[in-house]
């Protein structure tokens, strides 16, 4: 009798929790369908970018009701982490290393210089540390996915910081689709040099793929880009370590963030698994689409927290994005011309 009486109180009401999330999850699912349709007709716009813009539009033009918020919080946090973990299955380290040490050196140098200098420049421009960090992350590593991962790993950035960084990725990454091939032609770069430069300098994987497909260097460009994506894990870990020892959660405070967030460790584990060659071909073929869907859902949830009024005033963030884009482009171009 006693055991029977306690069971309803001891068991969490997971069904009720799921019911509360369903409206928001359903809205995210509809947004993903819309994003995939737009991407089908306009391939240069990745589903993730379309989804975050859709979320912002919904929040600022219609409003997000209370019924949607639990589900949107779920996709913006839990689904995001799952998408980043699965992103690791797209990356095989041997394929990246096969590009040669010169190409790897270009990627590491361009990414490291841009990520290091961009926050310093942002500080001189009077931007918040959160905005500067997310712009640096998105431009130097892999666009929207990197911005979302860094925001999830640190506690000093807001939805508006993320919105500013995402606007940079969309604006300058899309512009690069036209400008990078033109500049490469004007500079007399070889097809291999163009592929390496695009992969090392352009923000989003979809944007790099658009350049590569149009220029006949798709495999090289995307492989180099995925080499940059690998750097997401050490850069997030390094940033978390610095926050742990120098930020508001420094030793002596009760709360300290992990040096490597669990989902970033999962990302590394998936990279290691893919690199063994044991992952079936059917899985590696399907994973990019699955990851795109999950990332689009997560970024739709993130987008619903964006205040467009603050974004419109973000001229300095766009200036920082232009400087950072120029920096990663110049450093990688110099490396390509000297080493590749």
Automatic annotation (TrEMBL):
Alphabetical list of Pfam families matching this protein: Cons_hypoth698
Residues spanning the membrane: 21-38, 44-63, 133-150, 162-187, 217-238, 259-280, 286-306, 318-339
Keyword Membrane attributed: yes
Topology relative to the membrane: Multi-pass membrane protein
InterPro entries to which the protein is assigned, alphabetical: UPF0324_pro
Localization, UniProt: Cell membrane
Chief localization: membrane
Keyword annotations of the record: Cell membrane, Membrane, Transmembrane, Transmembrane helix
Cell membrane in keyword set: yes
Family assignment from sequence similarity: Belongs to the UPF0324 family.
PANTHER family on file: INNER MEMBRANE PROTEIN YEIH-RELATED (PTHR30106), UPF0324 INNER MEMBRANE PROTEIN YEIH (PTHR30106:SF2)
Identification of the protein by name: YeiH family protein
Species per Swiss-Prot/TrEMBL record: Nonomuraea guangzhouensis
């Amino acid at each position: 009798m006693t055991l029977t009486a306690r069971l309803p109180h001891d068991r969490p009401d997971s069904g009720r929790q799921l019911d509360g999330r369903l409206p928001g999850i359903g809205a995210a699912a509809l947004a993903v369908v819309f994003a995939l349709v737009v991407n089908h007709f306009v391939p240069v716009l990745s589903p993730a970018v379309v989804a975050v813009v859709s979320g912002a539009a919904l929040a600022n033009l219609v409003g997000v009701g209370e019924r949607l918020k639990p589900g949107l919080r779920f996709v913006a946090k839990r689904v995001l982490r799952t998408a980043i973990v699965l992103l690791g299955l797209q990356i095989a380290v041997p394929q990246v290393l096969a590009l040669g040490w010169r190409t790897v050196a270009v990627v590491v140098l361009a990414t490291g210089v841009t990520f290091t200098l961009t926050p310093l420049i942002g500080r001189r421009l009077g931007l918040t540390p959160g905005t500067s960090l997310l712009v640096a992350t998105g431009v130097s590593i892999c666009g929207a996915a990197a911005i979302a991962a860094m925001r999830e790993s640190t506690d000093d950035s807001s939805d508006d910081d993320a919105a500013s960084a995402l606007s940079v990725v969309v604006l300058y990454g899309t512009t690069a689709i036209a400008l990078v091939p033109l500049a490469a032609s004007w500079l007399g770069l070889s097809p291999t040099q163009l592929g390496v430069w695009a992969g090392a300098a352009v923000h989003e994987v979809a944007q790099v793929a658009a350049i590569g497909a149009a220029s006949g260097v798709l495999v090289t460009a995307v492989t180099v880009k995925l080499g940059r994506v690998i750097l997401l894990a050490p850069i997030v870990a390094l940033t978390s370590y610095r926050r742990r020892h120098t930020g508001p959660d420094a030793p002596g405070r009760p709360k300290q963030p992990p040096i490597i967030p669990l989902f970033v460790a999962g990302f590394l584990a998936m990279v290691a698994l893919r690199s063994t060659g044991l992952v079936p071909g059917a899985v590696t073929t399907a994973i990019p689409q699955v990851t795109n869907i999950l990332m689009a859902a997560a970024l739709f949830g993130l987008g619903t927290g964006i205040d467009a009024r603050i974004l419109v005033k973000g001229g300095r963030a766009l200036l920082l994005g232009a400087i950072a884009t120029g920096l990663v482009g110049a450093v990688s171009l110099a490396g390509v011309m000297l080493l590749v």
